[in-house]
Each structure stands twice: as C-alpha cells, then as structure tokens.
Specification:
Layout lengths: L9 H28 L10 E12 L3 E6 L18 E7 L13 E8 L7 E8 L19
Parallel strand pairs: 3-5
Antiparallel strand pairs: 1-2, 1-4, 2-3, 4-5
C-alpha cells in the first residue's frame, strides 16, 4: 500500500496563503488606525485639592518630591478629616505645570490633587516659588499633642 501525500505547487500555495495574508494585513492595519485614534482618558475628578507650602526635595522631569507643612484639614480615603503631619511626599507633575527656574531646596507653594481610586493618587497641579527667606513649619519631629 502506497500513501500518497498531495503536493502544492506555487499557484496553489499563493492562492491559499493570500487570503490569510490579506486578512492578517487588514487586521494589523485596522488595529494600527484604532491605536492612533485613541487619546488617553482624562483622569477621574479629584477627591480633594490642597494648597500647602513646602520645600522641593527632588525635582525630576515628571515628578517632584516636596517636604510640606502640616495639612490639618486633610481628608482620608474614608472621607474623615484626619489631618496630615509635615512630611516629604512624591507628586506626579500635571501637564502644563511650569517648573522653569525651580530647583532642589527652593521653598514653594504647592497645589495638589488627591485621587483615592483611578489615575495618579497625588498630582501637583501648581508650583510657585516663594521668596528664599520664607520660613516654613516643617519639623522632622512632631509635637507631642499632634494627633498624627
């Protein structure tokens, strides 16, 4: 008994491969157009916005670390006012925040948004340089009567 295996010639191969290749190419092209048309979704609305003074500890291209003064009116994720002690926090810089002329060690007025779910949790929306002799209340040790 002889087993005969069918063979494909060049015209058979191209006629079978062409629809597959055409379909794959069309799918890749369509995905490329969809990807190009997608714009990033805007971040969800902020749960809270705060303004506080502080000192730049580290300024990067897209982030800033600021040692800020205490925020007595800070509200936690549960919606309760819990306050926040003076500390260094890392913030994502929002698009359009001008950091020209700012450098590590500068005193600043910082406006930032908090998002407890979705998006960047801490986003700096404004940084304004304060006079170099600005006295900030940023202690490393908390007073004994401070709740946090």
């Amino acid at each position: 008994m002889t087993l005969r295996i069918p063979t494909m010639n060049a015209s058979t191969k191209s006629s079978l491969a062409s629809p597959i290749e055409r379909t794959a190419a069309a799918l890749l092209l369509a995905l490329g157009f969809v990807a190009c048309d997608e714009t990033p979704a805007p971040p969800p609305p902020a749960d809270a916005t705060y303004q506080v003074r502080g000192r730049i500890e580290h300024l990067g291209e897209q982030r800033v670390a600021v040692h800020h003064e205490a925020i007595d009116e800070f509200v936690g994720a549960d919606g309760e006012q819990v306050g926040m002690r003076s500390m260094t926090m890392d913030f994502v810089l929002a698009d359009g925040v001008d950091v020209t002329g700012l450098e590590d060690g500068d005193p600043v007025a910082l406006t930032f948004e908090v998002r407890w779910s979705g998006g960047d949790r801490l986003t700096a929306t404004a940084l304004e340089e304060l006079p170099a002799d600005t006295e900030l209340e940023i202690a490393d040790v908390l007073p004994a009567d401070h709740p946090h």
